[in-house]
Specification:
39 residues, two-stranded antiparallel sheet, alpha+beta
Length: 39
């Protein structure tokens, strides 16, 4: 579970672990879990 610091209808600010990527990227390799999936 990610801590939501701020939220409105346009954005969400979260406190995420440093090793968790925000979204999928070609440099991510085999990582399959991202912050946008958890939210």
């Amino acid at each position: 579970m990610l801590e939501i610091l701020y939220q409105n209808k346009y954005l969400v600010a979260i406190n995420k672990p440093r090793d968790l990527l925000v979204h999928k990227s070609f440099i991510a390799g085999n990582i399959e879990e991202y912050a946008v999936q958890i939210l």
